[in-house]
Amino acid sequence: MPIEFAEVPRPDDLPRTSRRPFGMLDTLGDWLAACQGQSPPTPPRRTRIVAFAADHGIAAKGVSARPPGTTSELIGELLDEGTPLGVLAAEAGSGVRVVDVAVDNEDTGEFKIRRGSGSIDSEDALTDDQAEQAVRVGMRIADAEVDEGADLLVPAGLGVGATTPASTLVSVITDTEPVAVVGRGSGVDDNAWMCKAAAIRDALRRARPVATEPMKLLRTVGGADLAAITGFLAQAAVRRTPVLLDGLTVCAAALLAEELAPGARSWWLAAHRTSEPAHTLALEHLDLEPLVDLGMAEEAGTGAAALLPLVSMAAVLRRSQ
Fold first, then answer.
1. Which CATH number fits the domain that encloses residue 140?
2. What is the span of the domain harbouring residue 88?
3. What is the rounded CA–CA span in Å between residue 30 and residue 38?
């Protein structure tokens, strides 16, 4: 059965702060009030960061500074609060959930779609069934988090090589040439940058025939993590739950989520702008202005996690105005 999302409701059209002496904090307060349908808003009581983990076959082509198949190590570090995201989440008092949708290891789980994805320069990332299954996983996770009381969600991607399919999706959707979307990702050198540009160029040749079909794009040049984040973002909007967007991987999925569930972007706020050029293109296409530019190359939820205390502060400040 084809995936169909319920109609996305619009946030309440509440009066916005006429004077903006607090700049970004006023923007945050207005957004939170509209999402909650009340002014002043209340600080989020249960923020949840959900990291969708997957390996990508394209990593074997030398597009990442990290070795292929090492996503499992990143998961272990995150759960031990040994990654920047783990540290920041603990400091912000946010729970973190890791969902293995396509990590290349022997582990199995309720939500695992496959071990890694296809190398998108020469083969599809997923089958049609796997793409649909991954989107439905994201929907289920969003429903579960909201049902358990989450009132602010932060999706994140966790996987070696993920910025290559993410950049490819941004390139095809915004009709941008490969060299204009290629960034340094995990900190690649010039040789890896050229490998990445070539991989995106070849993937684009395969993606352009399905450029207007979101599910086929996820199958052809996406991955299980990107598909799951797409479903998660769309369903969170259906459930009237605000989402703080992080970096390139999440925003690439957001492009597809908005196509599958028009109006979903009104429930999202862009936390920050990374140094990835494709991230800027995605934000512009979504007409979302990032709150800050941290000059950050790293994504995996770190920028959004760093801003979580400001969300609560914005709500508290609004009550004093």
1. 3.40.50.10210
2. 44-320
3. 10
What region, left, alpha or beta, does residue 62 occupy, with left being phi > 0 and alpha being psi -120 to 50 degrees?
A: left
Residue 8 located in a structural domain: no
For residue 119, what are the contacts with CB-CB under 8 A and spacing of at least 6?
57, 58, 60, 61
List CB contacts of 264: < 8 A, sequence separation 6 or more: 8, 233, 234, 236, 237, 238, 254, 257, 258
Under a CB-based contact definition with an 8 Å cutoff, are residues 148 and 307 in contact? no
Interatomic CA distance for residues 95 and 91, integer angstroms: 10
Residue 32 domain-assigned?
Answer: no
Residue 213 within any structural domain of the chain = yes
Report the number of distinct structural domains present in the chain. Answer: 1
Q: Give me the tens of pLDDT residue by residue for the chain, a chain 321 residues long.
A: 678 888 899 887 765 665 666 788 888 998 999 999 998 899 999 999 999 999 999 988 877 777 777 788 888 878 777 678 888 888 888 989 999 999 988 887 899 999 999 999 999 999 999 999 999 999 999 999 999 999 999 999 988 889 999 999 999 999 998 888 887 655 667 777 788 888 999 999 999 999 999 999 999 999 999 999 999 999 999 999 999 999 899 999 999 999 999 999 999 999 988 888 999 999 999 999 998 887 776 667 888 899 999 999 999 888 776
Instruction: Say whether 154 sits in a helix, a strand or coil.
Output: strand
C-beta separation of 51 from 98 below 8 A: yes
Whether residue 26 lies inside any domain: the answer is: no
* Torsion, CA 72, CA 204, CA 257, CA 264, rounded to 10: 130
